[in-house]
């Protein structure tokens, strides 16, 4: 019983460590556009996001129930399996944070849980229908829906503000960005903090500490909310830089449209119990907002790297978790080996990150890559998108005057 209690405590601590990495990994989802457009100072932005993440953790338990009751068979799960799943998710989070890629913490957790469960109890212990309907389909649909919503919202925003005074309009949209960023932070706490609640509850069920089909206990909700809030406050500055500056250049109008669209999608999915990736939703909305402004260009090289990371998240986390579960199967010493490997790997990644420090002081000091040629999609959308609001340009400035000694230039007399 003592060894069992020890492994259960290790699982709970590791789950909260994952929740912490989830917080700083996904801070960019709520605050990248607000920081990049200058609507809020970086430290103030992450502080507000942290508080609202904590509040959001108490609003619902639907997503937590999807994980603890729906994705895998509770009867075939041991605490060691959940520990192995968390190892896969944490390492993937840290690796993608190191290279500044906004991948999905949610899918890392799902992949880890699936890989460890298959390694322990076989494919039959994974509920395929729940995986498809509540994880995979939302993973594809969320960025598309959020992107289209943000693109049309951006076009509508510029059309409505076409005749507005530029400075007043910009000030208003900056205020709107702050409000919409708060909404995304609230949605992030409602969706992502619940994933850790679900994992801890699943571990408690596996260990016999709570009855099957139980909702998360209050101490689980509170601890998960605090862990993700602390991680958010530290700020995942590397990913904030990529999301705010690497995908596209956003104006306040676009930032407001992107955040509002993403928050709507995330909150709707949380209400339905979908284990949605907030990263997918916000990234799709940012790209949609970039395409919604005439002249806006999405940097597809960065987007392609991000798409590849999205595709690798589930299988990579699953593979690491399956290997960790296999090692844990050798007994207590195997679990200890996996724990030491997790700590050592995390410390190594952190040490490597210190070679180039990115924090609140330099998060916006980003050398914009050479402008990519607009692709077919960008050109087609830009052709039917209204121009940004503001004073009309002097078109004559774009037509060069002929040289004074040009023999073909019309004389003053001939123009009368």
From TrEMBL:
Pfam families: PHO4 (PF01384)
Positions of region (Disordered): 383-416
Keywords associated with the record: Membrane, Phosphate transport, Transmembrane, Transmembrane helix, Transport
Matches recorded under InterPro entries: Phos_transporter
Subcellular location field: Membrane
Topological category with respect to the lipid bilayer: Multi-pass membrane protein
Entry's transmembrane regions: 6-24, 44-61, 81-101, 108-126, 132-153, 196-212, 218-240, 307-324, 330-350
Family in the record: Belongs to the inorganic phosphate transporter (PiT) (TC 2.A.20) family.
Protein name in the entry: Phosphate transporter
Lineage: Bacteria, Bacillati, Actinomycetota, Actinomycetes, Kitasatosporales
